[in-house]
Amino acid sequence: MKRFATRSLSTIALAAACIAAMPAQASLIDNGITYTLTETTTADPQIDLFTLGISGINGPSDTEGGRYGVQSFAFNPPSGFVSATAPAGFTYESGGLNAGGCDGHGNFFCFSANTTPTGPALASNSSLSFDFSIDSTSFGSYVPDFKINWVGTQNNYNLVSLPLSPDDGSPPTRVPEPGTLSLLGAGLVALAFVRRRRQVA
Fold first, then answer.
1. Which helix (DSSP H) or strand (DSSP E) does residue 50 occupy?
2. Strand partners, 120
3. CA–CA separation, 53 and 195 (whole Å)
4. Are strands 162-163 and 97-98 parallel, antiparallel or unpaired?
């Protein structure tokens, strides 16, 4: 029986560790480029960390190609939005964007590159990653609408203007906070203990 209890607790610990390691993700593919947004909670319930990962740049599936880099990108804010902190090399601005970059209009917040990327084009199948944070009183059912302004050999690139949401269409599920994980772990340990006592009896 002790061996069973040890295995159960190990399994529970592993499950809790896996839950802690799985941030919420949402993605979309547009013009052969894959955009993935990862959201992770912090100890502060009002601040979540986000990573925008972009892959397939200038690769065989990229229908536009010739991209030098990102000039700006924008998201709609969650309800209760307070502010956002821009990724390294970018500046935060309110409003959305158009083919010229952040334009200060609409229910969006925008990050503008401090220096507009110039040629040569990025290597085939390049990837980019941008880390930023959002301060909001509520992330509950946040489904981010996304826009991006590329610069490169094309005169104007598609601005995307699509929602980043899970494949099933539901809002992204946020990663449990450390306190929530502790409660979950305690509950699982209690269930294992009850199960063990029933088997002994």
1. strand 47-57
2. none
3. 43
4. unpaired
Cross-strand pairs, 57: 126
The tens digit of pLDDT for each residue in 64-118 reads: 999 999 999 999 999 999 999 999 999 999 999 999 999 999 999 999 999 999 9
Looking up residue 158, the CATH number of its domain turns out to be 2.60.40.290
Point out which residues pair with 93 in neighbouring strands: 110
pLDDT at residue 140, rounded to an integer: 82
Range of the domain at 112: 24-174
Q: Which amino acid is at 31?
A: N
Is the pLDDT reported for residue 195 higher than 90?
Answer: no
Residue in 112, 85, 115, 83 with CA at minimum distance from that of residue 100: 112
CB atoms within 10 A of CB 156: 12
Residues 146 and 128 in one domain: yes
**Token reading at 187:** 């509950």
One domain, residues 34 and 110: yes
User: Among all chains, which residue has been given the structure tokens 């065989």?
Assistant: 60
Give the pLDDT confidence score for residue 157 in this predicted structure: 96
Question: How far is residue 152's CA from residue 122's CA, in Å, rounded to a whole number?
Answer: 9
**Could you tell me if 100 and 124 lie in one domain?**
yes
d(CA 176, CA 42): 9
**Do 12 and 85 lie in a common domain?**
no
Q: Supply the pLDDT for residue 192.
A: 53
pLDDT band at 25 (very low <50, low <70, confident <90, very high): confident
Whether the pLDDT of residue 22 is over 50: the answer is no
